[in-house]
Amino acid sequence: MRVVVLVSGRGSNLRAIAEAIDAGRCAAEIVGVVADRRRCDALAFAEARGVPTASVRPKDYADRDAWDVALADAVSGFEPALVVLAGFMKIVGASMLSRFDGRIVNVHPSLLPAFPGMGAPQQAIDAGVCVTGCTVHLVDAGVDTGRVLAQVAVRVRPDDDAGSLHARIQRLEHELLPRVVDALAKGEDPRWLGSAGLRSP
Ligand code: GRF
Question: Does this model's pTM top 0.90?
């Protein structure tokens, strides 16, 4: 399955997908990596791997709609069957949603619908919950509101800060996201992946 990954930062989830593909655990091909900035670790990783990249920066366009059209054009150029938002720090707009309807997924560091938006690990700590986790969901017009595809739980430890909690959540993101991509590639329902062999660290 042809996959385009949208990134803004470190790219650890991009790396996890790439490693799962290399290991034969994910039936996908990363055909392009697109960022909302000119440089980030995720883009550098893609370039080093020989994956075609593109940068589509909001500040190069008159407004958000024009940026969103340009983003959809750049992504379309790679002819993906699936678009994966992996640490992409922008909300995609109507052009992206209509062109890739039901084919955009996002990974988020909480058990949605709890703690959407920025700073989800800190939100979990502030709320005093004992359990949080990660979610892979379809992207719709809201912020982290699309249909949940798969989730895994992570315990919140009494001495956690946002950094330590996010690090443990990310270990599971790196397991879950490639498995969801693999399930979608095979036409399987990823919904029960979380309970099938992924254990909370
Ligand atoms: C992940 O924790 C993901 O849940 C959130 O952004 C982070 C991206 O990390 N949406 P990375 O760039 O994949 O390392």
Answer: yes
